[in-house]
């Protein structure tokens, strides 16, 4: 599967092969939501908490 990303500032589009991407799994300590993140400083998408654990 290939997903296309565009910079939020209007930069060029890039394609990324998700089979090669290092997707990290997390769980929120506050609400228990499980989610996946490609990069950056993750926050819970449900409650916006930064109190998370990497699985």
Structural summary, described in words:
There is one protein chain. The chain is mainly β and 55 residues long. The chain has strands at 2-6, 13-17, 24-28, 34-37, 52-54. Helix content is 0%, strand content 40%. The mean pLDDT is 79.
Features:
55 residues; mainly beta; 3-stranded antiparallel sheet; 0% helix
Secondary-structure map:
Layout lengths: L1 E5 L6 E5 L6 E5 L5 E4 L14 E3 L1
Antiparallel strand pairs: 1-2, 3-4, 3-5
In short:
The protein is mostly beta strands and 55 residues long. The protein has strands at 2-6, 13-17, 24-28, 34-37, 52-54. It has a three-stranded antiparallel beta sheet with strand order 4-3-5, with no helix packed on it. A two-stranded antiparallel sheet has the order 1-2.
The oligomeric state is single chain
Helices and strands, in order, run as EEEEE
* End-to-end distance: 23 Å
Strand content: 35-45%
Strand order of the largest sheet: 4-3-5
């Amino acid at each position: 599967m290939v997903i296309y990303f565009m910079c939020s500032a209007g930069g060029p589009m890039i394609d990324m092969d998700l089979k090669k991407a290092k997707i990290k799994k997390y769980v929120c300590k506050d609400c228990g939501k499980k989610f996946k993140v490609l990069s950056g400083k993750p926050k819970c998408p449900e409650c916006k908490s930064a109190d998370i654990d990497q699985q």
